[in-house]
Amino acid sequence: MDAFQDHYPENVAHCYGCGRLNDHGHQIKTVWEGDETVTRFTPEPYHTSVPGFVYGGLIASLIDCHSTGSAAAAMYRAEGRDLDSLPPFRFVTGSLHVDFLKPTPIDGPIELRGRITEVKGRKVVVETAVLAAGVLTARGNVVAIQMPEDFGTAKPG
Ligand SMILES: CCCCCCCCCCCCCC(=O)SCCNC(=O)CCNC(=O)[C@H](O)C(C)(C)COP(=O)(O)OP(=O)(O)OC[C@H]1O[C@@H](n2cnc3c(N)ncnc32)[C@H](O)[C@@H]1OP(=O)(O)O
After folding, report:
1. Considering the entire predicted model, what is its pTM?
2. Would you say residue 116 lies in a domain?
3. Domain for residue 154, yes or no?
């Protein structure tokens, strides 16, 4: 099955976390499983924090891009639109909160399971459970905001 990220327009497909065109990035892939969004990622040995465990910044990064992708997919779903239909929905991170509940073992795949808890205007809130071998090790809460037309061009105020 195609992942959400396979449908990102080329000009937003370079993100370090989720861009399919970023050779150095994580290139995560997220799909619907019922009402949950799911990303599976296998960490490399160099993603270490304490030996044997995953670096927390990687977990935050995975939650971040899993959530922005989930937000876009949720908005398409809410409008009954195909992921390739135009104009495309693009979401950036307004807020990223992570609770690290337990060390995450590095020796196997990590699963992120997201639930959409709010869709309002340009905002989508995604809650994500991070599991390693079925054990909940972290929880994320992301407020994703539809990218403004002038993103990156507004002058600092
Ligand atoms: C399938 C195809 C999909 C394509 C997708 C490709 C994506 C690829 C990209 C991948 C990216 C990967 C990920 C990355 O790395 S994204 C890179 C990291 N993120 C950024 O650089 C974002 C920088 N910030 C901004 O540009 C602006 O501040 C944004 C756009 C976020 C909001 O500024 P804007 O002026 O536009 O917003 P608004 O004031 O009209 O508010 C609108 C609503 O939002 C609510 N709000 C705002 N901020 C926050 C906050 N911090 N916490 C909680 N809520 C917040 C606000 O209360 C309001 O809600 P409500 O009052 O209506 O309820």
Report:
1. 0.94
2. yes
3. no
What was the ipTM of the complex prediction? Answer: 0.91
What number does the ligand 1 atom closest to the CA of 7 have? 1
Is residue 64 within 6 Å of ligand 1 at its C-beta? yes
**What is the average pLDDT across 56-75?**
98
Residue 82 lies in a domain: yes
Instruction: Report if residue 122 sits inside a domain.
Output: yes
Q: Report pLDDT digits (tens) over 17-65.
A: 999 999 999 999 999 999 999 999 999 999 999 999 999 999 999 999 9
Q: 95: Cβ below 6 Å to ligand 1?
A: yes
**Three-state helix/strand/coil letters over 83-136:** CCCCCCCCEEEEEEEEEECCCCECCCCEEEEEEEEEEECCEEEEEEEEEECCEE
pLDDT higher than threshold 90 for residue 115: yes
Please tell me the total count of domains within the chain: 1
- Give the count of beta carbons closer than 10 Å to the beta carbon of residue 32: 16
Q: How far apart are CA 106 and CA 88, in angstroms?
A: 35
